[in-house]
């Protein structure tokens, strides 16, 4: 699908200075010198639209993608220009960024949706321009993926992450029930920090984490659940309220992601409590791994952001070179690339720290 294209960067696609990789900086500099009116060439241009770079996992994934692009350039000799746009949690902003990517000749779009209900509109825009589209990390409904044969999704099964998180708690209960069951009533009392309302990852992680515990034969009691929108500060505020209301009655804090788990840790660290509830998260971000090492976070579930970034790039290169994408990545149902989750605790922490 090689074609001559023209591209120009724009303010909303710029990474903060500390997050710009050499390839992106070089692209910005060359485009600035050319006045955004330079000639056409055969370089591959990728437009990556993020829902927000304030999300630690998404920010790290974007940096992984930058690094992998530089490696691919070095290994293949292909010129690859990567533009990254921060949607700042606004679907309107992200839609404008997608329009600009298309207007400026990006050859493949990679979109981390702000609002999954916007997938159909973006899919139709990409199809109209003949530009392959790779959604990632935030899964559109199946009907939107099926709108065109050049639409793909790269991510991980949120149900699996919930199950693995629940098993972390189940294993802890079985290993030392007396310590975890502070009330001595044989019931696990918990609170739940949830991501965005209606987000499939939030819904599935919430449901299947508890299901795994219950299916393991443990009776549970939900003390409270609140949305914290994947945000550390919001989670800290929610947890502080729960600590005032329930005190040491909270035995476990489930969190749909690591940023919110870290917010719970922030709230607990500001109190004089000697005994903390058991806390579990999802993503295995670098700060979360540090919290596991410090004994503050019992465990998390590794969400392979680098693996997802690699799959996106492999898929993009195959499409660019006119190759069968099924030979480059493991495609399920012709459209999906699934990366597995893995549990992380103090026992296997070193393996993930090395990565």
- Number of H- or I-type helical stretches: 14
CATH homologous superfamily of the largest domain, by name? Response regulator
Apparent shape: elongated
Low-confidence stretches: 2-40
Any idea of the CATH class of the largest domain?
Alpha Beta
- C-alpha-based Rg, rounded: 22 Å
Strand order of the largest sheet: 2-1-3-4-5-11
Tally of DSSP β-strands: 12
Examine the secondary-structure arrangement and name the CATH architecture of the largest domain. 3-Layer(aba) Sandwich
Instruction: Give the rounded overall mean pLDDT.
Output: 90
H/E order of the elements? HEHEHEHEHEHHEHEHEHEHEHHEEH
**For the terminal residues, how far apart are their CA atoms?**
34 Å
Classify the helix fraction into a percent range.
40-55%
The SS-based structural class is alpha/beta
Overall domain count: 2
Would you write up a description of this structure?
The chain has 355 residues and is an alpha/beta fold. The protein folds into two domains: 11-156 and 304-339, Rossmann fold (3-Layer(aba) Sandwich); 158-303, Response regulator (Rossmann fold, 3-Layer(aba) Sandwich), CATH 3.40.50.2300. It is 45% helix and 17% strand. It contains 14 helices and twelve strands. The chain has helices at 22-34, 56-76, 91-103, 119-129, 142-145, 158-175, 177-180, 200-215, 232-246, 258-269, 286-293, 305-320, 325-328, 349-354, and strands at residues 44-50, 80-86, 108-111, 133-136, 151-155, 187-194, 219-227, 252-255, 278-280, 299-302, 336-338, 342-345. It has a six-stranded parallel beta sheet with strand order 2-1-3-4-5-11, with helices on both faces. It has a four-stranded parallel beta sheet with strand order 7-6-8-9, with helices on both faces. A two-stranded antiparallel ribbon has the order 10-12. Helix 10 links the parallel strand 8 and strand 9 (278-280). The longest helix has 21 residues, at 56-76. The two termini are 34 Å apart. The model is unreliable at 2-40 (pLDDT under 50).
């Amino acid at each position: 699908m090689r074609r001559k294209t023209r591209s120009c960067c724009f303010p909303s696609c710029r990474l903060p200075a500390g997050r710009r990789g050499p390839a992106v900086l070089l692209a910005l500099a060359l485009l600035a010198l050319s006045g955004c009116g330079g000639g056409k060439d055969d370089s591959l241009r990728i437009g990556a639209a993020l829902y927000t770079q304030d999300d630690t996992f998404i920010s790290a994934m974007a940096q992984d993608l930058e690094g992998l692009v530089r490696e691919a350039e070095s290994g293949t000799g292909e010129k690859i220009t990567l533009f990254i746009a921060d949607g700042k949690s606004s679907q309107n902003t992200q839609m404008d960024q997608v329009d600009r990517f298309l207007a400026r000749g990006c050859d493949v779009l990679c979109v981390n949706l702000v609002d999954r209900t916007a997938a159909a509109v973006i899919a139709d825009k990409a199809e109209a321009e003949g530009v392959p589209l790779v959604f990632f990390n935030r899964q559109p409904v199946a009907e939107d993926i099926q709108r065109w044969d050049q639409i793909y999704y790269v991510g991980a099964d949120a149900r699996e992450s919930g199950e693995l998180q629940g098993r972390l708690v189940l294993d802890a209960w079985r290993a030392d029930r007396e310590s975890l069951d502070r009330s001595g009533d044989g019931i696990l009392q918990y609170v739940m920090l949830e991501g965005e309302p209606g987000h499939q990852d939030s819904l599935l992680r919430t449901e299947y984490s508890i299901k795994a515990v219950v299916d393991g034969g443990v009776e549970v009691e939900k003390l409270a659940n609140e949305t914290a929108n994947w945000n550390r500060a919001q989670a800290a505020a929610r947890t502080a309220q729960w600590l005032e209301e329930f005190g040491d009655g909270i035995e476990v804090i489930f969190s749909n992601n690591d940023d919110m788990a870290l917010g719970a840790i922030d709230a607990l660290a500001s109190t004089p409590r000697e005994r903390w509830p058991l806390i579990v998260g999802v993503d295995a971000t670098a700060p979360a791994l540090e919290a596991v090492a410090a004994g503050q976070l019992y465990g998390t579930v590794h969400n392979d952001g680098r693996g997802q970034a690699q799959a996106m790039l492999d898929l993009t290169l195959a499409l660019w070179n006119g190759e069968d994408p099924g030979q480059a990545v493991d495609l399920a149902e012709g459209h999906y690339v699934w990366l597995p989750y893995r549990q992380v605790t103090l026992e296997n922490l070193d393996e993930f720290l090395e990565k």
